Amino acid sequence: MTAATARDHLRHEVLIGGISNTIFNGLIAWLLLKSGPALAWGGEHSFAVDVIATALLLPFIVALIVIPLQRSKLNKGKLQPIDLGNASLMQRVADRLPAGVFKSALLFGLFGMCIIAPLTLLGFYLMGVEQVQPVTYSIFKGIWAGLMAGVLVIPMVLLALRAPASSPTP
Length: 170
What we know:
Blueprint: H1 3-33, E1 39-40, H2 47-75, H3 89-96, H4 101-126, E2 131-132, H5 134-160
Antiparallel strand pairs: 1-2
Helix pairs in contact: 1-5, 2-4, 2-5, 3-5
């Protein structure tokens, strides 16, 4: 795949993943929370627990969908392998991930839970957020989930479309 075609494909996947997750996560949050009380750090209506759970589950589920779909297109000849080269941070990350879909999905989920969730909650803490109204949280969650999916879909696609490792010659 040419560099321009690869960039176009990645841009398309980022838009699809980002927009769809923005809409679905924002809508689901609003439907679940619209008639409830404000969310707080702890308790039954905790935005902290929701952020941590979403940061684990969203990348895990998206990886379980994106990687097999991209590999299927590759195997059917609809897509070609992508290698952005060693200068690309995303390519280096993708190249270090295991080939297995479940293992990679688990690593994406753990990354979300251990890196993205704490950074998100740190932002809440530094801004002095104590409570969030359901509508405001639904908007935040939609945008946040869309951004997370949009960014993480890049290494997912690069992982799925990396060229097969060449077998050693005897």
